[in-house]
Specification:
The protein is built from eight helices and four strands; from the N terminus they run ββββαααααααα. By secondary structure, it is mainly alpha-helical. The termini are far apart.
């Protein structure tokens, strides 16, 4: 484990740099969701580039989003949530994608109120993006708010008429 003196902080995002353990407690021990607790282990992805090596915030956010997607694909929802939230704090020109991914993470672990909140943030950032309405519909359906869910799915379908997941959700 790296000693505090071996670790610096990025001037852009404040993220720790230098030697770091491959696994350990989540930084700062602040839970970001009800299902994240202080004892949760979080793997620090070796392939995640440091802020200094990325050159600009937009490319760093895109790399972070892709890494979060990779974590999501292996069911590391806590790790994905942390990356998506970190990328939102850095600043993104497409925050709707990060909020949408957060909604999917929360839905995957059954936190439907949080999934709905992130879906609403997605729609606020990009009102015509169909996936935001689809995410909202998924959360509302899980909460058994059927008329509202159907409305959200219809809005998603209006923007993406050939979407198989949306058609399946409406059946």
């Amino acid at each position: 484990i790296a000693k505090r003196s071996d670790v610096g902080h990025c001037g852009r995002c404040g993220e720790r740099t230098g030697n770091s353990p491959e696994t350990g407690s989540m930084p700062e021990s602040r839970p970001t969701a009800a299902w994240e607790v202080q004892t949760l282990e979080w793997k620090v992805p070796r392939s995640f580039p440091s802020c200094e090596s990325m050159g600009n915030a937009a490319s760093m956010v895109e790399a972070g989003r892709k890494q979060g997607n990779a974590l999501y694909s292996v069911n590391d929802f806590a790790g994905a949530v942390r990356l998506y939230k970190r990328m939102l704090s850095v600043g993104s020109d497409q925050p709707h994608m990060l909020h949408s991914n957060l909604s999917a993470c929360y839905a995957a672990v059954g936190l439907m109120a949080a999934a709905l909140e992130e879906a609403d943030a997605t729609i606020a950032a990009a009102p015509t993006w169909p996936k935001g309405h689809y995410r909202r519909g998924v959360a509302l359906a899980a909460l058994e708010l059927w008329p509202e869910a159907a409305l959200s799915f219809r809005r998603a379908l209006a923007g993406e008429p050939h979407s198989a997941p949306v058609h399946a959700a409406l059946e």
